[in-house]
């Protein structure tokens, strides 16, 4: 019995000593942690000189509300309420800025990603918008007769070959906007190229979305992202209407800290506008707006900017130069679909741009499939090959050393070019494609990987 008591006391003493030792080690670890620099191990040693002009980091809620008050009609009430909801959500959920910086990859302001805010659902919009996209007929009636007609019927049947993790969402849903911003930031992109129509206008399957821009800017700022505009081919787009719409965008949104300005070789910080389907307008019309001697010139005015034209055919490069554009992009994610989207043509296009003082912005994409809305278009499908197609496009882009790379797209679900998270889904009508064997965020991770690779290589180009 005596030996048992001695052993029991010995074990208790040993446990107490061991516990005190563990507490001592923990206290030392905590003390050392407080000495660690905020960004140790996760800094951005070579990208700082490439960032756009540093702007005020505080969100000015009063300016946001004033900008919303300028919208007229019943739409004002709905959008103001939406903005208030979004602002309150931001204030309630806003983590400290340094915490966001630690958790997410640094934004790369030379990675621009095309973004669409045209989706709607009954909860936020009273009906489905774009998810119920119609099946588009082939232009040849004989071919069209061999394919189905009608519209998609969400939420189980949507106008896409993949299915989003967020479901058939509304672009007005603040939680969706926040999720999108977080995904784009996690992918180390830096500039959102927002599809834009003038107030009251939309694509033929959508509703006007300009009223949503202030909310998108606010959430982009929360994640230290910038926003530029992808001007769509709206009705009667010409030199005069473009002048007024560029003025509208800069006057209304140019003061927001998330509004993107690009540092030029002359040291100026200018807004940038991508102009989709620019080739449908005559070079002479564009020259009125984009050349110094043009009758409607925007050059050397408070609304001067960098205008980037879409190049589809090889001959467009001469028209773009003659029109007074500042550069060209290729948009399409289908290698071989057009001259501009064919990777093997990028070197010659970059050489042409360099010799004519133009920017060349190649567009890379993870794949392409639009048979959910164009069932006859199988020949333009490009399989993702578990991410290899995307990486091949990035590799081709880096070979020409571009100043900017654009990504098609974050969420163009109709054409299957999205890098947004997608999930496996099977319904009675269709089996959706997915990213297996990888996780839903695989294309965000690949984008982040190539963003870092681009930064490192660009550092070498600039030496």
From TrEMBL:
Its main location: Golgi. Signal peptide: none annotated. GO terms for molecular function: glycoprotein endo-alpha-1,2-mannosidase activity. Its EC number is 3.2.1.130. It is found in: Golgi apparatus membrane. It comes from the Eukaryota. It catalyses: N-{alpha-Glc-(1->3)-alpha-Man-(1->2)-alpha-Man-(1->2)-alpha-Man-(1->3)-[alpha-Man-(1->2)-alpha-Man-(1->3)-[alpha-Man-(1->2)-alpha-Man-(1->6)]-alpha-Man-(1->6)]-beta-Man-(1->4)-beta-GlcNAc-(1->4)-beta-GlcNAc}-L-asparaginyl-[protein] + H2O = alpha-D-glucosyl-(1->3)-D-mannopyranose + N(4)-{alpha-D-Man-(1->2)-alpha-D-Man-(1->3)-[alpha-D-Man-(1->2)-alpha-D-Man-(1->3)-[alpha-D-Man-(1->2)-alpha-D-Man-(1->6)]-alpha-D-Man-(1->6)]-beta-D-Man-(1->4)-beta-D-GlaNAc-(1->4)-beta-D-GlcNAc}-L-asparaginyl-[protein] (N-glucan mannose isomer 8A1,2,3B1,2). It holds the Pfam family Glyco_hydro_99. Keywords: Golgi apparatus, Hydrolase, Membrane, Signal-anchor, Transmembrane, Transmembrane helix. It is an enzyme of class 3 (hydrolase). It is a single-pass type II membrane protein. One of its GO terms (cellular component) is Golgi membrane. InterPro entries: Glyco_Hydrolase_99 (IPR026071). Belongs to the glycosyl hydrolase 99 family. This is Glycoprotein endo-alpha-1,2-mannosidase. It comes from Hemiprocne comata.
């Amino acid at each position: 019995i005596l030996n048992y008591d001695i052993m029991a006391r010995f074990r208790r003493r040993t446990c107490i000593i061991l516990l005190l030792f563990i507490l001592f080690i923990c206290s030392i670890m905590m003390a050392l942690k407080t000495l660690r620099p905020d960004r140790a191990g996760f800094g951005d040693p070579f990208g700082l000189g490439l960032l756009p002009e540093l702007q005020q980091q505080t969100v000015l809620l009063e300016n946001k509300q004033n900008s919303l008050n300028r919208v007229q009609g019943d739409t004002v009430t709905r959008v103001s309420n939406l903005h208030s909801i979004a602002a309150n959500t931001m204030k309630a959920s806003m983590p400290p800025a340094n915490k966001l910086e630690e958790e997410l990859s640094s934004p790369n302001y030379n990675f621009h990603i095309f973004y669409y805010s045209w989706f709607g659902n009954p909860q936020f919009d009273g009906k489905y918008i774009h998810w119920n996209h119609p099946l588009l007929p082939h232009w040849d009636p004989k071919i069209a007769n061999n394919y189905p007609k009608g519209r998609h019927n969400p939420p189980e049947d949507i106008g896409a070959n993949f299915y989003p993790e967020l479901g058939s969402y509304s672009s007005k849903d603040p939680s969706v906007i926040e999720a999108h911003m977080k995904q784009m930031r996690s992918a180390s992109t830096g500039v959102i190229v927002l599809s834009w129509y003038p107030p009251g206008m939309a694509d033929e399957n959508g509703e006007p979305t300009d009223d949503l821009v202030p909310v998108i800017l606010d959430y982009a700022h929360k994640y230290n992202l910038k926003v530029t505009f992808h001007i769509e081919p709206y009705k009667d787009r010409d030199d005069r209407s473009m002048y007024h719409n560029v003025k509208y965008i800069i006057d209304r949104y140019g003061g927001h800290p998330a509004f993107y300005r690009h540092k030029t070789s002359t040291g100026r910080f200018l807004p940038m506008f991508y102009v989709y389907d620019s080739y449908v307008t005559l070079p002479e019309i564009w020259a009125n707006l984009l050349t110094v001697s043009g009758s409607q010139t925007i050059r050397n005015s408070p609304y001067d900017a960098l205008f980037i034209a879409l190049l589809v055919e090889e001959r467009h490069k001469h028209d773009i130069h003659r029109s007074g554009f500042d550069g060209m992009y290729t948009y399409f994610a289908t290698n071989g679909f057009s001259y501009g989207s064919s990777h093997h043509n990028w070197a010659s296009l970059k050489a042409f741009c360099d010799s004519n003082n133009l920017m060349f912005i190649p567009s890379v994409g993870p794949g392409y499939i639009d048979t959910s809305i164009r069932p006859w278009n199988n020949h333009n499908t490009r399989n993702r090959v578990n991410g290899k197609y995307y990486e091949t496009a990035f590799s081709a882009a880096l070979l020409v050393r571009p100043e900017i790379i654009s990504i098609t797209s974050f969420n163009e679900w109709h054409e299957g070019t999205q890098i947004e998270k997608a999930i496996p889904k099977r319904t009675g009508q269709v089996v959706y494609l997915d990213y297996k064997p990888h996780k839903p965020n695989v294309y965000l991770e690949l984008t982040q990987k190539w963003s870092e690779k681009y930064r490192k290589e660009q550092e070498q180009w600039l030496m």
